TrEMBL record:
GO terms for cellular component: outer membrane-bounded periplasmic space. The chain crosses the membrane at residues 45-63. Coiled coil: none annotated. It holds the Pfam family Transgly. GO terms for molecular function: penicillin binding; peptidoglycan glycosyltransferase activity; serine-type D-Ala-D-Ala carboxypeptidase activity. Residues 92-268 form the Glycosyl transferase family domain. It catalyses: [GlcNAc-(1->4)-Mur2Ac(oyl-L-Ala-gamma-D-Glu-L-Lys-D-Ala-D-Ala)](n)-di-trans,octa-cis-undecaprenyl diphosphate + beta-D-GlcNAc-(1->4)-Mur2Ac(oyl-L-Ala-gamma-D-Glu-L-Lys-D-Ala-D-Ala)-di-trans,octa-cis-undecaprenyl diphosphate = [GlcNAc-(1->4)-Mur2Ac(oyl-L-Ala-gamma-D-Glu-L-Lys-D-Ala-D-Ala)](n+1)-di-trans,octa-cis-undecaprenyl diphosphate + di-trans,octa-cis-undecaprenyl diphosphate + H(+); Preferential cleavage: (Ac)2-L-Lys-D-Ala-|-D-Ala. Also transpeptidation of peptidyl-alanyl moieties that are N-acyl substituents of D-alanine. This is Uncharacterized protein. Keywords: Carboxypeptidase, Cell membrane, Cell shape, Cell wall biogenesis/degradation, Glycosyltransferase, Hydrolase, Membrane, Multifunctional enzyme, Peptidoglycan synthesis, Protease, Transferase, Transmembrane, Transmembrane helix. It comes from Weissella kandleri. GO terms for biological process: cell wall organization; peptidoglycan biosynthetic process; proteolysis; regulation of cell shape.
Amino acid sequence: MDILKKVLEIMRGVYAKCKEWHHKLQAWWQRTLGPVWHRFQITRWIIVVILALTLIISVLGTFEAKTTDVSNLKARLKSTTEIYDVSGNKAGSIAGEKGTYVSYKQISPTVVDAVISTEDRNFYHEYGFSITGIARAGLMIIWHKLTFTSTNALSGGSTLTQQLVKNAFLTQNQTLTRKIRELFLSVQVENEYSKHDILSMYLNNAYFGEGIWGVQDAAQKYFGVDAIDLNQQQGAMLAGMLQSPNGFDPLQNPQAAKNRRDQVLLNMVANKKLTQNIADQWAATPIGATNHNMTSSSYEYPYYFDAVIDEAISKYHLKEQDVMQNGYKIYTSMNQTDQTNLQNDYQNSYLNPIGPDSQAASIVLDAKTGGVRAVVGGRGEHQFRGFNRATQMKRQPGSTIKPIVDYAPALGRGYAYDSMLPNHSMTFGTNNYAPNNAGDVTTEDIPMYVALERSYNIPAVWLSEKLGINTSYQAGLKAGLPLTKDDKNYAMTIGGLSKGVSPMQMAQAYTSFANEGKMSDAHFITKIVDASGRTVVDTVKIKQTRLWSAKVANEMTSMMLGVYTNGTGIPADPSGYTVAGKTGTTEFATSEDNPNAATDSWAIAYTPDIVNVTWTGNDNGEIIPASLASTAAPLMKTSLEQIIPNTDQNAFTVKSIRERNSAESWNSSSTNSSISDNINGVAGGLRSAGQTIVKGAQAVWSGVRGAIGF
């Protein structure tokens, strides 16, 4: 009783103090702000401002809801982005943040009960948003502002519909602006879909940890069953994960997952979806979750699919989230046979003479269209949208640049395939640049086609000096090579660049030789259609740029046909097929112990149908053999022997220089032989005629002798 009296006395004292402060505050208000407040009718202005803000928010929110297309939401969530090959056949899909989509009827009712009991008990009675939830969220904002615990935090108050809208249309940033957009879009979704549709879309789009999206894949991952077969404790565990998928991951945090599951079971009891007795029985059991392997073969061509995503984002300005989530149909120039063969080649250790820790990259283009038929961007384990050496790498091209910046420009300015070029040690320019041939070989003057076949450096630099370094530089730029002002020097003419090139850039440039002087723009995507059937990117037209005349391109092909039969490309010459092209090596000049060392090895080969580029080396620049046979040749030779039979196999319209020279030599020999035969024939005729005359004279003489008596 004494304690109660003391409490009452304290309360009376507090009340008296509050009353005293109230009177003082009221008196202060009447003396100072009161008259001003009433004079300017501030209360009315506050009401007007609130109504105006409400109107503005309503207008903007309604505009947001009406201009956001929610009608194809189900199709977007249900569909994965699919990729098709050049023939229109499905090559695979990009699941993104999606799992296996199942309908409402394919989801266990126990999961539905657990989710609604825990996440949104008034789901079936509200219209996309909760007044009490919004009020609670508003109080949380005020609390965070007053306590300075957060500057923009907004938590709680979200219905299942709002959570679906947030995941499907909005960012995860917890701001007031996002919350307003979320509210109006939720109303729009409620107008468009039934409660069962909304619930199934939510559960199919939810994240369940371990990289698993959707209730069906979560059921398979943790319990090895379909979503329809989940029991009450399993459904409760999955429902509990929605709040914090990683925090309540049963594989990583089993005790936390069990505690959360038990809480969900109690929520189901409170929501009259489960009896207390059954809940206690389930709570006494372990969670029973184990790791079931989830394998997917839909991403069968990883480097190609990575490049498709990159091109959709960079070239056609689609957002990554949209590409991954919105169920597009993306049509490409892929040839699945070529892609499969190339990937298998990269798994063949016999085609990698450098060693298992080395790297490589290959790309195959359709010479006419520029469409990428196949691409592999590296050896070893693939990382999703990781480094693709075929499209993103920048390495020194070595001698493969010479046809572009040296020989083709020279042919276009009066030089001929058999123009004699110096091949002895010399210096160039004001800085006395002194290139060396491989092995420091020098010779007498040689024809241009021989210099190209044997990949001599000195004749190439000499040509560039005669043409003017700017001519070579501009030729490289026009061919799409990423040259900079720092590259305007003689080192560039034999492949010494400030940054480097990618295999894709070199393949694109070489289409100009395979395509009578016209360079075809390299690309992966040919068409994009969204989930509703609307064409986002129409059929891509072939884009070509003329680099050389047809005469120059054909003459270059005549010279480069000799590279794989009589030059540096012999180790990669495909059996039974004719190719033109060029090889290139970046020599490691400071390697005294191994003068035949290099850092990059390239092989480029083409036919009238395709261009194939292969690079081999090490990411860290460690040395490799300089010999093509010990680097890129096995891979290039094998891939060519697989790819060429899979094309139209159009024949070159020109012959190699050596074939032409041989034919001319044979014609000359044949002509000389014919002349000799004619001379011999005339001589023989004369001899025969002479003999006939002699015999006739003898007969006449015998007759005369008989007549006169001799």
